[in-house]
Recover the amino acids of this structure.
């Protein structure tokens, strides 16, 4: 069962970065590159790179950042 509308809005955060804004209040961000990148504003709640919530996202890692629901 879906918890929100099935909608993705692509965010342009730079080369090698996959990021989408979901209407349910989440922005999943994946760094497909080889260097760390800044995350969108907010505090990452879940990360695959084990860094602190406010640090840049490591290469080849994913983070989920909350945003106000649309």
């Amino acid at each position: 069962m879906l918890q929100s509308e099935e909608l993705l809005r692509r965010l342009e955060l730079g080369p090698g970065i996959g990021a989408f804004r979901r209407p349910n209040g989440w922005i999943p961000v994946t760094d497909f590159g080889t260097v760390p990148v800044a995350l969108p504003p907010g505090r990452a709640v879940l990360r695959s790179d084990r860094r602190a919530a406010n640090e840049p996202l490591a290469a080849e890692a994913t983070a989920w950042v909350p945003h106000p629901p649309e």
Summary: The chain has a mean pLDDT of 88. The two ends are 19 Å apart (CA to CA). The longest strand covers residues 26-31. The CA atoms of residues 31 and 54 lie 16 Å apart.
